[in-house]
Amino acid sequence: MENIVEGVLHPASQNIMTVVYGIPGSGKTLNIQYILDNIKEISNDKSILNRTWIWFDLELINTESEFFNSISSQFSTLLGDSSKVESWSDLKSTVNSRFEDENFSLTLLIDNFEVIFGLDPDKKDMMSAFLYDIFSKNRDRISYVFLSAAEITDEKTSTLNRLSLLLQSATAYFMPFFDAESVDLLINWFETEQNCTISSDLQSKIKDLVAGDPRVILRCLYQSVINKDFTKSLLDSRDVSSSYMTIGKEYLNERYDSIIKGLSQVSVKELVELECNSESFINKMGLVIEKDDDFQYFSPLFGYYFMENKKEILNRQTEREVLSHSDNRGDSTINDNNIKLEQITDSKIKLLLSGQELLAFDFLSKNSGNVMTKEELAKNIWGDDWAEKYSVWALDKMLSRLKTKLNKHGYNKVVKVIKNRGVVLI
Fold first, then answer.
1. How many angstroms separate the most distant Cα atoms in the chain?
2. Cα dihedral: 257, 291, 31, 271 (round 10)
3. DSSP state of 174
């Protein structure tokens, strides 16, 4: 916690822009939220305590008609009744008016910032201009913290017009996988929540195989509770291959795919070839560790994933780059052989989806043609307690983004929301 206070909150309180990088599911958002919710017990820094902190989640932005409303509604803490704000000019004026109080200072924590690069050009320009204009008028008392699960390259940054100036000057803070202490706390929390005891042998096996990936750790822990044979199978595994199969090949492939998806082509190549240095993005993200003057994958499972999928990983990365360039040109082809986007496959469309969109797409695909309730879909994405952290509104916005992407890239099925029944992919 102290590292986050010193590395993220303190610089922000001094009006320094910061990009916080963390792999999907690494807990970057939850950790910062927890600290801010309990900041009076954690820090006595007056510059942090006296500041207004507002969360702004780009994942909740609708890509269709309600784009502006979905943005202004997230400023309700600052604006009061956002329904009175009817234009970008109104929104900027209202936010700027708060700075008339000379003691007012603001940090905007922009979660899922990587989403901005997938917005339509007009919407991306509006969002970038809004953030920059607010900053330019109040630069002595405002800062942004950009939270991203994907690598932000110079090429991407250059598409944000004036906002790119702020990103280029921002400091980078990396929140890699859990350290040993955090893993122990996670296991202790799980034992308390499930009223169970995880044997020391199983804990050691999980730590050796998984290292500090919280999502895979939790999967193993839950499997040990609900599947009586899981613990014995994992403990009896004599090689990484059998352990990979026991934990779940499909699950692990999807998990590691989601990590690779957020990396640049340069970083993917460095990962595949294990040729990097201490300043490489993959090293700072904790995807590789340095040992005996050499680099290795952060966990045996991650290493096995690359050993088995090396060629496919490189091919998919090349396809993704071609699709990205095609989008930027407004072209209708994905390569020089004029393969139309109407022919796009499941594997290629998955490369264009965010983590939540991918979970929704996979669930609907497995139940293609069957109407699934929103409750069933939400539980599949966010877990049984989804309603405590998310809303039907957030689910609808995510479905709208998914529907738009499938249509935009010519996928041969569509997402339909059937009133009072649910959602279906047909």
1. 66
2. -20
3. E
